[in-house]
């Protein structure tokens, strides 16, 4: 069941059965579509506590609408003591489609926390009889330490159709954990079951009727979507009825209406396409239409190319079209029949044959080709040991011994030859999911069809080896960029760069290697010759201690002179994933000046793939920049191959797909390959390209100019859909949550779940993703590098923040190790730790934790609700102390800050610290490492974006944070508050300016 992740706050008011959420301080009301169906319903429990003969704390207290969690208010249940098994049950009186279950357990505040070891281990069941075991257990608490227990919990996983909800607990001997209370107890102060009567949904009072097309007329209580469909029918996630599978399917279909199987002769997700008539037996792959085999005389993925007339019986190899056997031509007959004494004549004939052959694809200025040029044989992908930019093991063969098949004229753009091919863009995500099955076996298989190494002549490259960064990466003779020749300089027309077609136009891009020191002037001559206004750089100058590119641009204020140009930089903007530089180039002879923009993506290292969203947003920035110069965009990485090819494919296929609603990724890679080698170097890059395109096609138009922010925020907050009465802003929030990463426990949280680390997590539902966790570097000998902390980007740095939970008793030393290891001099504390003296020093009081000593450096101050504490931290065996400033906002204990003025002040103070040294991360900590931390980072990043770029994208900024910690921003209240605080910030700024 799909559950809407709307704000689950304690500030919930019940008005006539309608749940209303008060958002921020603006009293904007958001409606919960399903209702509380457990209020005042019959309840039972296994026993009831009696005091001096008086029965107290009845089972009905848990459904009286009072969420006060103190037992003394007589609004909670309490059962007889000394039991080893207890249960509480509510009868909803009819079958109900349940959305979620919310529990308020006893909590007496900070004074006493004994309730935790009683609540621990509880279970929740949904059933249609009073016997819970006939139903489904939807939740079991498996907390490993008492610190992980919280008193107010939501269980969206408890959804389905049921009449009874049972909460159960038990104690056995020996106890599951030593810290468990010896007896089983349930002290429930309120249990709220959200849902609708079966057959009903939404509209606040569950007065909408589920579609009769839903089996049993059962649907989701909030959205009205069918929960499931019958045979040969399906429903999409956004639809409220089931529809029949397409008639073209050979059997059932999936939840998107895509056929699970096709009749012979057809392919496509809905079997809507006909296999090529040249496929053997007219049979092709269901997913993409690729022929499983070709009829004799044809080759290619879809068998659309004719085998060469020189092939014996017209038969050739399917993948590249090489003849399996050659015809005996007249020339060959002469050669075969000649005697050994005619060797010289044979060589002449062979030479003439090669020259004639090569003239099919060679320009007049390139017809001085030598006959003994070395040539690389294409290496099958499956045998490649190293597909990186630096591949140095190559096969060099004399041209006389290689059958060179120059297909540059025959191998035109695939789309030109095959028409509107490919598959609908809307099917891309489903296709990715299917191909990722079985360890992405289908992706790997497809990747192996791309040739590795040269497949066309590259004689000019061989003559200019000193200008090539890698001896294995060459520009092809037919597609290379030919520069104007400099007087008296042989080879000055050469640069390692190729023109690349897009889907519908020739020579649309230029792909090139990262400049060498001796080719920097050549690079700028090419940019000038092309009249290009955009350069895209995808590598860093140095990666893994290897130089990947010469620094071909100057620093601001320090002009660069090349042989031909005067070059200066007019400023740069540094972002978390990239840098944008404004470069002025002046031709020294003509004095003509051009302004060129360089877009430098800084987080994509060789052998790796970048975060999909980061690269797509970088691509958006490149596309949004307008230049008056009409030339091709120049794209380069170190070799001008893998990373360059991925970026070009993203740009070309996105443009084509938006226009025609169809794409064919694999065929376009072959299109690039005809003009430059190795444009996709690894299977991981191939998979990543698919994911980038899926992300790019779904990219929301959520970028808001500063001047339009107030009006746009008003529209998002007030425009509602008639059907569901939801605002556009709530739709945006739901979409944000629907698109967050789906990390796998066993794969992505391995460090968090090691036995020695489980007790270091305050809540087992909030763990550190392995890829982004902040590892300790100087941990004690009896510890390890784990702390529940993740690196999170600021607007200007990939690791601008490190987010972590309040320290547990046993992790206090780890917290201060984190501060020192990452040299952080700014710590933001959001909320009020229950025992702050254990890790935060008070005035004139030191804190001693293992081998750490923490003391205040001066007196703490308080401004606008923010405490400022300067501390000195040192290990007891070290003389040098580390200084840091702590900013604590004690009153922020709920989901949103109590004061906008206080949070704006805090954001300003932290930005001021970061501005002075952006290389040091700010450590942000709150109770669970999520609730307050996520909203703080979102407000900080979006505020910085407004200041730097005079535009903001709250939606994408939030999504980037959820990549690092998916539990961030779990309520709509927080998302709404971010918009509200930005509005207040802009208004305050305007007042100050005016």
UniProtKB/TrEMBL annotation:
Entry's EC annotation: 3.1.3.48
Segments forming domain Tyrosine specific protein phosphatases: 633-687, 901-976
Gene source species: Mizuhopecten yessoensis (Japanese scallop)
Keyword hit for Transmembrane helix: yes
A Pfam family per the record: Y_phosphatase
Membrane-spanning parts: 12-31, 333-357
Organismal lineage: Eukaryota, Metazoa, Spiralia, Lophotrochozoa, Mollusca
Protein known as: protein-tyrosine-phosphatase
PANTHER family linked: PROTEIN-TYROSINE-PHOSPHATASE, RECEPTOR-TYPE TYROSINE-PROTEIN PHOSPHATASE
GO molecular function, a single term: protein tyrosine phosphatase activity
């Amino acid at each position: 069941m799909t559950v809407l992740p709307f704000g689950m706050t304690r500030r919930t008011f019940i008005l006539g059965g309608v749940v209303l959420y008060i958002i921020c301080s603006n009293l904007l009301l958001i409606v919960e579509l399903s209702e509380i169906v457990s209020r005042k319903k019959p309840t039972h429990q296994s026993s009831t506590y009696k005091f001096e003969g008086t029965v107290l704390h009845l089972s009905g207290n848990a459904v009286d609408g009072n969420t006060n969690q103190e037992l003394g208010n007589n609004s909670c249940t309490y059962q007889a003591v000394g039991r080893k098994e207890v249960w509480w049950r509510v009868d909803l009186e009819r079958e109900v489609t349940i959305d979620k279950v919310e529990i308020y357990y006893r909590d007496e505040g900070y004074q006493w926390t004994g309730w935790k070891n009683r609540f621990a281990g509880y279970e929740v069941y949904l059933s249609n009889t009073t016997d819970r075991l006939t139903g489904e257990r939807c939740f079991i608490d498996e907390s490993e330490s008492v610190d992980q227990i919280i008193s107010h919990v939501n269980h969206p996983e408890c959804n389905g159709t049921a009449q009874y909800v049972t909460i159960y607990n038990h104690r056995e001997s020996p106890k599951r954990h030593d810290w468990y209370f010896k007896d089983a107890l349930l002290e429930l102060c309120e249990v709220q079951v959200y849902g609708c009567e079966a057959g009903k949904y939404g509209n606040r009072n569950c007065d909408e009727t589920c579609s009769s097309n839903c089996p049993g007329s059962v649907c989701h209580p909030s959205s009205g979507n069918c929960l499931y469909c019958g045979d040969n029918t399906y429903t999409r996630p956004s639809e409220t009825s089931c529809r029949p599978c397409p008639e073209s399917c050979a059997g059932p279909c999936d939840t998107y209406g895509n056929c699970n199987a096709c009749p012979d002769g057809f392919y496509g997700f809905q079997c809507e396409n006909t296999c090529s008539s040249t496929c053997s037996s007219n049979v092709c792959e269901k997913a993409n239409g690729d022929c499983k085999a070709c009829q004799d005389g044809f080759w290619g993925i879809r068998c659309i190319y004719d085998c060469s007339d020189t092939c014996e019986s017209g038969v050739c190899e399917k993948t590249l079209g090489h003849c399996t056997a050659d015809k005996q031509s007249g020339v060959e007959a002469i050669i075969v029949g000649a005697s050994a004494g005619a060797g010289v004549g044979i060589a002449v004939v062979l030479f003439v044959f090669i020259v004639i052959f090569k003239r099919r694809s060679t320009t007049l200025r390139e017809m001085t080709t030598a006959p003994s040029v070395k040539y690389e044989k294409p290496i099958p992908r499956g045998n490649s040991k190293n597909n990186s930019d630096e591949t140095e093991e190559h096969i060099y063969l004399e041209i006389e011994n290689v059958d060179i098949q120059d297909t540059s004229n025959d191998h035109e753009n695939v789309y030109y030859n095959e028409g509107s091919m490919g598959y609908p863009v809307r099917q891309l995500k489903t296709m990715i999911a299917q191909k990722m099955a079985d360890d992405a076996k289908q992706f790997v298989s497809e990747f192996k069809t791309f040739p590795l190494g040269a497949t066309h002549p590259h004689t000019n490259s061989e003559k200019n080896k000193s200008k090539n960064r890698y001896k294995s990466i060459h520009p092809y003779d037919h597609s290379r960029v030919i520069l104007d020749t400099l007087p008296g300089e042989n080879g000055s027309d050469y640069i390692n760069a190729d023109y690349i077609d897009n889907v519908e136009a020739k020579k649309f891009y230029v792909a090139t290697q990262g400049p060498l020191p001796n080719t920097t002037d050549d690079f700028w001559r090419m940019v000038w010759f092309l009249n290009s206004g955009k350069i895209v750089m995808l590598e860093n100058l140095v990666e893994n201690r290897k130089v990947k590119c010469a620094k071909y641009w100057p620093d601001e204020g320090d002009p660069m002179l090349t042989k031909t140009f005067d070059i200066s930089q007019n400023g740069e903007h540094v972002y978390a994933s990239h840098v944008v530089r404004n470069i002025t180039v002046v031709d020294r002879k003509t004095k003509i000046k051009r302004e060129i923009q360089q877009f430098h993506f800084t987080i994509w290292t060789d052998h790796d793939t970048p975060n999909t969203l980061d690269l797509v947003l970088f691509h958006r920035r490149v596309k949004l920049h307008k230049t008056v110069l009409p030339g091709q965009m120049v794209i380069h990485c170190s070799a001008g191959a893998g990373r360059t090819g991925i970026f070009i494919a993203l740009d070309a296929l996105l443009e084509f797909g938006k226009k025609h609603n169809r794409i064919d990724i694999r065929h376009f890679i072959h299109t690039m390959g005809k003009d430059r080698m190795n444009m996709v170097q690894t299977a991981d890059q191939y998979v990543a390209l698919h994911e980038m395109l899926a992300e790019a096609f779904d990219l929301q138009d959520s970028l808001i100019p500063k001047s339009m922010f107030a009006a746009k925020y008003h529209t998002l907050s007030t425009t509602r859909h008639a059907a569901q009465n939801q605002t556009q802003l709530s739709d945006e929030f739901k979409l944000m949550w629907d698109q967050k990463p789906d990390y796998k426990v066993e794969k992505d949280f391995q460090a968090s779940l090691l036995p020695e680390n489980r007790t270091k997590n305050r809540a087992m539902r909030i763990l550190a993703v392995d890829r982004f966790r902040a590892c300790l570097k100087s941990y004690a000998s009896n510890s390890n590098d784990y702390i529940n902390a993740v690196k999170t980007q600021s607007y200007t740095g990939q690791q601008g923040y490190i987010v972590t939970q309040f320290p547990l008793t046993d992790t206090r030393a780890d917290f201060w190790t984190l501060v020192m290891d990452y040299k952080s001099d700014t710590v933001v504390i959001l909320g009020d730790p229950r025992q702050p003296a254990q890790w935060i020093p008070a005035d004139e009081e030191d804190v001693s934790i293992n081998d750490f000593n923490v003391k205040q450096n001066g007196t703490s101050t308080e401004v606008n609700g923010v405490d400022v504490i300067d501390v000195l931290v040192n290990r007891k065996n070290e003389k040098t102390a580390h200084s840091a400033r702590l900013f604590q906002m004690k009153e922020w204990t709920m989901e949103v800050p109590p004061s906008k003025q206080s949070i704006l002040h805090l954001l300003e103070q932290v930005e001021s610290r970061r501005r002075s040294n952006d290389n040091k991360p700010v450590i942000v900590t709150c109770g669970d490492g999520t609730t307050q931390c996520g909203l703080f980072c979102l407000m900080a990043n979006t505020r910085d974006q407004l200041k730097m770029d005079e535009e903001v994208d709250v939606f994408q900024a939030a999504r980037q944070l959820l990549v690092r910690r998916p539990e961030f921003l779990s309520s709509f209240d927080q998302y709404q508050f971010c918009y509200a605080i930005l509005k207040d910030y802009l208004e305050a700024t305007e007042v100050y300016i005016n």
